[in-house]
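Project standup — Tuesday

K.O.: blocked on the structure for the chain from last sprint. Re-posting the sequence here as requested.
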Amino acid sequence: MTTTALRLPPLRRLPRALPPLLNETVRSYVSRLAAANALTGLELQVHLTGSVKKETVTADQLAMLTGYPARTLRYAMLELCTPADLARMQIAGRPRPGPTDWGWRWPHNRIRFACDHCTTRRGPARPQVWTTHEDVVCLRHRRWLGTLQQEDQPDLAHLPDILAANRRHRRLIQLHRREPVRSAVMAAAPICRGWSDRSGGGQPSHERLLVFQNQGDETRFIDNAAVDAASYPEIVALARLFASPYWRHQAMTDNLNPEPIADAVVSAIFEEIRTGRRHHLNIPEDIREAIAGVLRPGPALVRFTSEIQRTVNPHYEWHAWPHYNKFPPITQWIMDQIEAARDPDNHQLRRRQAPPEHFEPTADVPQPRRATVVRHVNPTGATSGAKS
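H.V.: unblocked you, prediction finished:
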C-alpha cells in the first residue's frame, strides 16, 4: 500500500486535537498531532498537503484539522505568520524562527526540546520549541534544557549555582542588551569548556560533573547536556567581562594606542630577523614584542586578567606569546577586539549579518487623523454638522 492510499478524506477534523505550545515548531506540532491520532508524521503530512514532499503547512489547514482558530495557531507558532501578521501581533522578546545552520559558530535561531515536566500532558511526542540563547534552564522544575536539541535534561536540584548563573545571565541581557550578551556568551563558551577539559580535579566544573554522575547522567562524552551544564556558571562569569564596556576597555587600552615606533627601529629589527644577529641599536624588549604583534602588559590589562582569576578561573595565567603558532584564547580574543576597534569596517572577524534571535519591539506608527464632525446647535433647536 502506497502512502497516497492512506490519505484521509479532505481535511477531516482529527478525533484528538492537541493545543500547540507557545513558540512550538510547526513540524513538532504536526508530529504530535499524528502521534495522538495513531498516524505517522508522513501520513498526516500527506493528508494536509496532498504530497510526500515537505510542503508548507498553513494555519488555515491546521485550523480545519484541529478546530482551533487560525489566529490562535499563528500566535502560538510564528512560522505560520506572514510579515503582515507579525506586524499586527505583540510578540516583542519572543524567539524568531529561521535557519538553524552553523554559518557562524553559533546559530542565531535554535530549536530544542521543551521541558519534559512542563509538557507531561501534551501527548506522547516530545514538543520542540524555538528558543533564545539564555533560555537554557527551566527555573520552575530546576532542569537543564540546553541551547541545542539534546535528549537529556539533567536535574539541577543539587546544583543551585547553575540556576543562579542563569538568573545572572538574564540580568546581563537587561543591562547590556541581548545581542552583545549573546556574542559574549558565544566567545566565552569554547574558552571555558577548554579550560574545563585541560584542568584536573578540584575545579568547580569537575565537582558539578561528579554530581551529575551520582545522579546517573551521562558524562563520558564531550557533547552532552551534563558537560555543557557543568561549565555554564564559568561561561556566564566570563561573558560578564566580555559584554561589559568597562572590562573590554581595560583589556584593550594598554595596546589600543601604543606609542609610535621609529622607522629606523623597525628596520633594525627586520635586519636582525634576516641576519640572525643582534643590531648595534639598544632596542628594548617591549618594542620587539610590539613589532612582533605580541600584546604589551600594562596596568589595565593586569586588572582585566586579575578579574578573570577572581571571578572565573583562579588558575588562569596570562601568556602573550603564541604556542605552536596559536595564541592563548584570552589573548586572541583581546587581539580580535583591538583589530575590530581599529578597523570596524574591514575587520576580518566581523560577524555575519543576521537578524536578531528575537523579535524587537515595534515602533508605534502614528495613525492618520480621522475627520471629526462638529455639531452646532441653533437657537431654534436644529443641528448642523461640519467636518474638521
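K.O.: great, moving the ticket to review. Strands lie at 110-113, 128-131, 137-138, 143-144, 373-377, 383-387. The longest helix spans residues 178-198.
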